[in-house]
Amino acid sequence: MRGARILFNTYWIRFSLGELTHEKAVDNSKTLIKAAVDAGIQRIVHVSITNPSKDAPTAYFRGKAIVEEEIVNSGIPYAILRPAVFFGNDGILINTIAWMLRRFPVLPVMGDGNYKIQPVFVGDLARLAVDAARRDENMIIDAVGPEIFTYNELVAVIGEKIGRRAPLIHLPPLLGYYGSRVLGFMLRDVILTRDEIRSLMANYLVSADPPTATTPFTEWLSENADSLGRKYISELGKHYRK
């Protein structure tokens, strides 16, 4: 990092696997922040998550809160962006929903499906990051899109746009989790974790602040419906396996 002025930090892991845990990701992040201080970085633009908290019920959100605190206390001017769920390019959650709708006659949903989600376009997040890099003041903003859906509504609008609606089966969270484990075993991947189910159902992926991104999910979905979910995107294949 020596000679650089700005650090754009997107490092994190979706779930723990083997020796790579969220606690290890926190330690790695602390090392990165210390290196930024030593290298004379003048500003950190950090990608976090909506509603991080050291009291959160999941290691993902607790870890994000700890890393934010390390950045704030580093002495380096900072901008912290808190996105919810991404869409665009190879966004895994949205693509997986479409992939399942294209292949299965019904779609399982954890609980009542009325928990909320506020997706943000990756291009909007990039724009917010670049804009934040040009500013001087310390800032923490939720990087969220203009549309909020319940999970039921999200699945319905994806099904409508790709032309493959399917009845929803509402399952107890634990049963739904074990069902995702079976599908994940077949695909040699991780579909959902218990922590992700808890976070979704606790409405951690929605913001109480006004939207900062401008691209509506429904607009992007209309433009990309033909290709969405045509192929399965593996989380393990994309981020974990060599």
Short description:
The chain is α/β, with parallel strands linked by helices.
- The CATH superfamily is known as NAD(P)-binding Rossmann-like Domain
User: What structural class is derived from the secondary structure elements?
Assistant: alpha/beta
CATH architecture assignment? 3-Layer(aba) Sandwich
Largest sheet: 4 strands, parallel
CATH class categorisation = Alpha Beta
Strand content: 5-15%
Which bin fits the share of residues in helices? 40-55%
What letter string, H or E per element, gives the SSE order?
EHEHEEHEEEHEEHEHHHH
Unreliable parts: none
Q: What would the principal axes of the Cα set say about the shape? A: globular
Radius of gyration: 18 Å
User: Whole-number average pLDDT?
Assistant: 95
Summed up, the domain count is 1
First-to-last CA distance: 25 Å
Number of helices: 9
Oligomer: single chain
Break the fold down into its secondary structure elements and pairings.
Elements: E1 6-9, H1 22-39, E2 43-47, H2 59-72, E3 78-83, E4 86-87, H3 92-103, E5 107-110, E6 116-117, E7 120-121, H4 122-133, E8 139-143, E9 149-150, H5 151-162, E10 168-171, H6 173-187, H7 194-201, H8 217-224, H9 235-240
Parallel strand pairs: 1-2, 2-3, 3-8, 4-7, 5-10
Antiparallel strand pairs: 6-9
Helix pairs in contact: 1-2, 3-5
3D structure, described in words:
This protein has 242 residues and is an alpha/beta fold. It has one domain (6-240): NAD(P)-binding Rossmann-like Domain (Rossmann fold). Helices cover 43% and strands 15% of the residues. It has a four-stranded parallel β-sheet with strand order 1-2-3-8, sandwiched between helices. A two-stranded parallel sheet has the order 4-7. It has a two-stranded parallel sheet with strand order 5-10. It is globular, with a radius of gyration of 18 Å. The model has no long low-confidence stretch (mean pLDDT 95).
